[in-house]
Design goal:
By secondary structure, the chain is an alpha/beta fold. It is about 35% helix and about 35% strand.
Length: about 280
């Protein structure tokens, strides 16, 4: 008898979930459409405070023994030997790459964007205001010690130690969402070098090997800035859609995957699952 009850309840549960998702999709889709169609009800605005400065960090220096006890000249020598990207970044170009990508992607929604120069003058989020405030940006470079083990054609084992350079762009922001009033969120984008190699032979303890490195430079850092700017805008729109549905219905259990190039909702996920791939709440 219990099994029959379970079998009867399951279709009802699935129908409820499907109906809930359909309802959420309707509200989120209608929100995007009213701006695309220029309806009189499209009165909301997005207020944005863009990052105006950034910090440069080389985390590898933390691993240098006695670095803080070195003379200034010695420190400069160590920094030069371990730094290849953050010291070459032009802040104005880098910020322009991030900010332009963020604003362009956000503008795909056709929701009016208001730039706020002073973060203290940002309006409070309400039914007519969505807000995002970038509070800090960090360009981080570090070296990752790596080891690869190889076996030659003759069955001999060989170990090769090397370092791979990584670059990460880290941003912290305050934004309005149903679970984030006044809280700080984090997102980053990273790129790293890669290594491929194989030992050809070992003679007298010396290995002859074929090694290929795919290196990164400052141009890759600028590309990371563009990618993260666009990604932050996309994830923020997804937050807006969830927030709008929650404000309109009083509840929302759906996470909307947004496609900025088509200005449409690409797919749906349970909110708790989709939120894991969004901003990290600190």
């Amino acid at each position: 008898m219990k099994n029959r009850i379970r079998k009867a309840v399951m279709p009802l549960l699935l129908a409820f979930v499907a109906t809930s998702c359909t309802s959420d999709l309707y509200y989120a889709g209608s929100f995007l459409r009213k701006f695309e169609q220029g309806k009189s009800t499209a009165t909301e605005k997005i207020y944005v405070h863009l990052p105006e400065s950034m910090i440069h960090t080389n985390s590898s220096l933390n691993e240098v023994p006695g670095f803080m006890l070195m003379s200034e000249q010695e420190q400069d020598s160590v920094i030069a030997s371990k730094t290849a990207i953050v010291d070459k970044i032009d802040d104005s170009i880098f910020l322009s790459q991030f900010n332009s990508a963020f604003l362009f992607t956000l503008s795909r929604t056709r929701i009016p964007i208001v730039l706020v120069g002073d973060a203290s003058k940002m309006p409070k989020a309400d039914d007519q205001h969505f807000t995002v405030d970038f509070v800090q940006m960090e360009a981080e470079e570090y070296m990752e010690p790596c080891t690869s083990s190889f076996k030659t054609r003759n069955g001999l084992n060989y170990r090769h130690d090397y370092d791979l350079r990584h670059f990460s762009l880290n941003v912290w922001m305050k934004l309005d969402a149903r679970d984030s009033v006044g809280e700080v969120f984090f997102k980053n984008e990273e790129i790293g070098e890669t290594f491929r190699g194989r030992v050809l032979s070992i003679e007298g303890g010396h290995a002859s090997m074929q090694a290929d490195y795919e290196r990164i430079d400052v141009n890759d850092a600028y590309r990371v800035a563009r990618r993260l700017g666009s990604l932050c805008a996309t994830l923020y729109v997804e937050k807006i859609l969830s927030e709008y549905v929650c404000r309109t219905k009083g509840t929302n259990q759906t996470y909307f995957i947004y496609d900025p190039w088509m200005n449409t909702i690409e797919s749906l996920l349970p909110y708790s699952e989709g939120a894991k791939e969004s901003f990290e709440k600190l």
